[in-house]
Design a protein that fits this description.
With 160 residues, the chain is an alpha+beta fold. The protein contains 5 helices and 8 strands. The strands form 3 sheets. The protein has a 4-stranded antiparallel β-sheet with strand order 3-4-8-5. It has a two-stranded antiparallel sheet with strand order 1-2. The chain is globular, with a radius of gyration of 16 Å. The termini are far apart. The C terminus is likely disordered.
């Protein structure tokens, strides 16, 4: 396996669990907001397309072209659900955090294999939205009296 390189300007920081990690500078404020909410990050990148094309992430040229201009977060499934709900509660993002393709929309998925669903979710969103997403999370956390922004949304999922 080819060793990945740190492509983007990055900072060495200490994660909430005390581990030293490297985080791309452009997503560092967002990662810190995730941590303030108690959510654990498992990975991040300020431009996954660029990283894939230049050896900073797996996938190569084809993956790089697909995710060009898209930031990436990897969160545990429960934290991903909470993150997506918090972002979708902002009217600017309600329709973007959806399974519809488009230049402003997000791609979110979890893998599964013969053992079942993986425990993490991959979230890709336009890098140009990093600052706005960070600002949404920097606002007040949704409390028990906050409206459920997704309650009226229709989707194709079954169950809960």
């Amino acid at each position: 396996m080819t060793e990945l390189v740190q492509l983007h300007p990055a900072a060495e920081v200490t994660a909430p669990d005390g581990a030293p990690i490297t985080v791309d500078i452009a997503v560092l404020p967002l990662v810190r907001q995730l941590w303030k909410r108690g959510w654990t990050t498992l990975g991040s990148c300020q431009d996954m397309g660029e990283a894939s094309r230049h050896g900073g992430a797996p996938g190569g040229e084809r993956t790089g072209a697909y995710y060009a201009g898209y930031a990436w977060l990897k969160l545990g499934n429960d934290d991903a659900d909470a993150f997506l709900a918090a972002v979708a509660a902002d009217p600017r993002f309600t329709d973007r955090v959806s399974p519809r393709p488009g230049p402003e929309h997000w791609y979110c998925f979890s893998f599964r294999d013969h053992r079942g669903l993986f425990t993490s979710t991959q979230i890709f969103f336009p890098s140009a939205q990093i600052d706005d997403v960070t600002a949404v999370l920097a606002g007040p956390a949704a409390g028990p009296d906050a409206p459920d922004a997704g309650a009226a949304a229709s989707d194709d999922r079954t169950g809960s």
